[in-house]
Design goal:
Blueprint (H helix, E strand, L loop, with lengths): L1 H47 L5 H11 L4 H14 L5 H13 L6 H14 L4 H48 L1
């Protein structure tokens, strides 16, 4: 009897931990979007006020960024300085997919970020700033949508973790 009770408690604890981890993934997505927004604002400022070209701006921002964004910025900077003849859109898309695939960004936002490079590389400085402003607006809307449902999803993940543990415990008895 005591062994069954201990097993039941372990099952409930394990499923509750799974629910908590799922809730943390949701919260982490929002935090990653906030950090991405900060980096894009820094890029915008580098282009607008410092009049830096993109490679130089990526190097400066990379020195301040946290991982994996630091690696992403340094990758962009080094690939641009190589001057291999590869189009900027290809460099941006490859670096984004390679460095940020495990960053915790939602899939649709990662695709939109990869698409930003298609437009960013062919524009002059003023147009780049406008494109970044447009992307920041879209990012803010995505963040607002995520924030609206975030509390409910987090609560739901936690409750489902506990409830599934109780359900499994009932089935085992």
């Amino acid at each position: 009897m005591l062994l069954r009770a201990a097993g039941g408690i372990l099952v409930i604890t394990a499923t509750s931990a799974g629910g908590i981890l799922a809730a943390e993934r949701i919260r982490n997505q929002y935090e990653q979007l906030k950090y991405l927004q900060k980096l894009i604002c820094l890029l915008r400022s580098e282009i607008l006020y410092a009049r830096s070209y993109l490679g130089e701006a990526f190097g400066r921002i990379g020195s301040k960024a946290k991982s994996p964004y630091r690696e992403w910025m340094y990758e962009l900077c080094s690939r641009m300085e190589e001057r291999t003849g590869t189009a900027f859109s290809g460099i941006w898309e490859n670096s984004t997919g390679k460095c940020l695939k495990d960053a915790g960004l939602p899939g649709n936002e990662l695709a939109r970020l990869a698409d930003l490079g298609n437009q960013l590389g062919i524009a002059d400085a003023d147009m780049q700033v406008k494109l970044l402003d447009l992307y920041l607006d879209e990012l803010s809307k995505s963040m607002d949508e995520l924030r609206e449902g975030m509390k409910m999803k987090i609560r739901l993940c936690r409750c489902l973790g506990v409830m599934s543990g109780i359900f499994v415990m009932i089935l085992l008895y």
